[in-house]
Amino acid sequence: MTEKNFVMNIIDWLHNHKIFINDIKFGDDFGYDIENNTVIIGLNRYPEIEHWFQRYVERRTQWENVPIQILQFFHELGHSQTITNFSNVELVAYDIAKKNLREEANNELTIEYMNKYMGMPDEHAANHWMERYMNIHYEDFEEFIEYFVINWNEFMLGE
Q1: Exposed / middle / buried, residue 34 (Cβ in 10 Å: 0-12, 13-18, 19+)
Q2: How many angstroms separate the CA atoms of 145 and 158, rounded?
Q3: Cβ distance 159 to 5 under 8 Å?
Q4: Per residue in 37-92, pLDDT tens?
Q5: Closest to 72 (Cα-Cα) out of 26, 111, 5
Q6: Rounded to whole angstroms, how far apart are CA atoms 115 and 25?
Q7: Is the pTM for the entire model greater than 0.85?
Q8: Residue 140 half-sphere exposure toward CB, CA atoms < 13 A
Q9: pLDDT tens sequence across 79-111
Q10: Domain residue limits, the chain
């Protein structure tokens, strides 16, 4: 499967479930591009942080052992769904605060850094949206996990 087909399949699934983003791109780290309404799938791995995030989600939902890429992807979708809750001034202030946090942590992704980072209002809102979606739309989320994994494997294996 080509990257284009992977992206189209996932976006189609999302649109069919009334979650609207314009695009999915690949980069070093997961993220959300506000200006282009694009989720960025991160290809770098951070085992300690990924483990922390999985436990963070498991404590707040009924879900266990969800692939980390799906949790991270849904967190970024949460930004797309909650971004309008914040003014541009607030978003700029949060970005500055997050940059300062990263500098204080010497650009190291530590558990302490992640606890502070996830406490930022926009990050908290994205997580809250993700958690609610996972719990309220249980069957849809279960379907998405299977759909994403199948498409991801076909894409990564180049089938």
Answers
A1: middle
A2: 20
A3: no
A4: 999 999 988 888 888 899 889 988 888 889 999 999 999 999 999 999 999 999 99
A5: 26
A6: 26
A7: yes
A8: 15
A9: 999 999 999 999 999 999 999 998 988 877 788
A10: 46-157
